[in-house]
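Dear colleague,

As promised, here are the two records you asked about, laid out in our usual form so they can be pasted straight into your sheet.

NAME FIELD: protein one
SEQUENCE, THEN STRUCTURE:
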Amino acid sequence: MAVLMRFTSASLLVGLACTGSATTYAAETSGAAASDPTAAVNYQDFRYRYFDIADGRERHSFETEGAFMLRPSIKITNELRYVSDDRSGRSEQDFNQLKVKGMHLSQIKPFGIKAKLALGVEWLKDLGDFEEGTGTGADQIAPLAGIGWTLNDKNFIVTLVQYFYSYETDNAFDDDIRQTAPRLIWIRSLPSIGGWFKADLKMSIDHEDDENFDQTLELQLGRMISPKWGFYGEILVGDDVFDSNAYDVGVGIGVRMMY
């Protein structure tokens, strides 16, 4: 399985890089911006992710994620997941989680650097069954604050932090969720292939588990094939590199629609 995943990941990234070069710079920039949580863009992604969990367990996740600008300064995002998971000892399929986020965006210029401040709150609704491995075990509210830094016309950095608070938990879920989640994102636009590269380091401090620190890294390489449509491949790094409880390693593919 590990060899197959490495081969699949390499094939995805090589295919993305080697597909023709007719995409305009504007399309490539918009595709990169959709990977930036603080960018004012409308888009919708459709993706598949495979996770190798511990002890030979696997998860297949079918997801859609997007954003809509209600106003130039008001951004609404959505994310819905459907999973097939065998961590309970048998294969189970169900909707996993719905996320809806509202953010207010404003232009700022700290230290003379062009940036965007994002303030908002996210609602996370558990849709599955925690005992069967398809649910998260809790409904949550997560306020957030972030800054998107425009270093130059090709490089963007996002620093963001969220606090996750569970207001309702599944009977099988023992603890409440009280987590602080810093996040560091680097996005580089790649005009040579009409695409972008994204490195997304997601961290978590669990206040219900002796301040346990957890982290995962998501790597994404994408390309716009027209101003409206693009695609990308992902490598998801968990416990194979970091001391993470979420998963060992994963891969993903996705289609991006700008509108």
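NAME FIELD: protein two
SEQUENCE, THEN STRUCTURE:
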Amino acid sequence: MIQLKHLFASLLTCALLFAATDATCDPLTIGIPLPLTGANAAPAQDIQRGFELGKEILGLTDVTLIFEDDSCDGAKSITAIKKLLDINKVDIISGIMCNTALFPAAPLLNRANIPVLTVGATTGDQVGIGRKIFRLFPAAQEALIPLMPEMAKYGPRLCVMTETEAYSALIERAIESQWPSRGGGFKITKESVNAGVRDFRTPLLRLHKRGCDSILLNACGDDGFIASYRQLRTIDATIPVFALFFPGSSTVQRAFPEGLRRVTYADLASGGALATARGGEFIKRFKERYGEFLIGSPMALLAFEALRLIAESHKQGIPLDQFLRRGPIKDGAIREYTFDSDGAVQGIEFVVLNAEPPGRSDSPFK
């Protein structure tokens, strides 16, 4: 009788809470595959911390976060997501930092008919990956839009050194389609190595001999950028270097304590520039707890926003995919944005950043 009384009281409390706040009393389990090991572990750590601190800040006592290592590898991604779906019985998938982890797992996610909100992975220039797969990070090739005018300042001969995998192949396709249209005589000279190979000297020498006004180091991870930049500077100490994302990583910056000379790159604006007042409070709490972010991209802030969206849709009892399609999102941790009909975020833009050490008298980026 006492147990029944306690059960009735618990159900009554839940019903009153639901009536008062539109909240659901059902627990929620979120599966979060991330590259917790390997070359992309630094941004993954920022993301994991963003989720964990976000759960604390939002007071989500009924939410369980389950992290799995996918190493940004297709086969490992499928294994990790199968575990999350079949064993952990998660309600939603978030995280997923790399395109190389998202694409192979997309058929599995679609068959499971489960909502997905990625923090880092995008679908690049491909559409129709899944009706319930949403991406909070803008498509990587859009970072070239503000970067190409900077490249064009140095002349029409752009050299591209690619560490080949799905992400860097996407960037190469975007360059090939957009660079020639920038004006008469604009041309691309390309060399490539397989992903994971760390000897770039021979292809870099070939590019140097053929002539470059500037070079895009199209790496697919911190290690690839570090190796290619270091080897390039032994061949040509002055050529302007362009890149996406990686020069802002703490791993890269630790590798070059003297600074990255004549390097310009594109990334999202810093967390402070992207954040609302709510996001600014999260950043403050994050730095008090963990110190500085490990990478330049505001991945921890995006993780917090992803968790907030998931929690809010759950509280209101609206399926996540329907919740995200309702229109502009203005009350979050980042400035106003929306999702298009394909699930890609709109309204978050890339900016050009200078990796040149401050105060260099020979900097061309004053």
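A couple of things worth noting about protein two: Residues 2 and 8 are 10 Å apart (CA to CA). The chain has two domains: 22-139+272-348, 142-270.

Best,
R.
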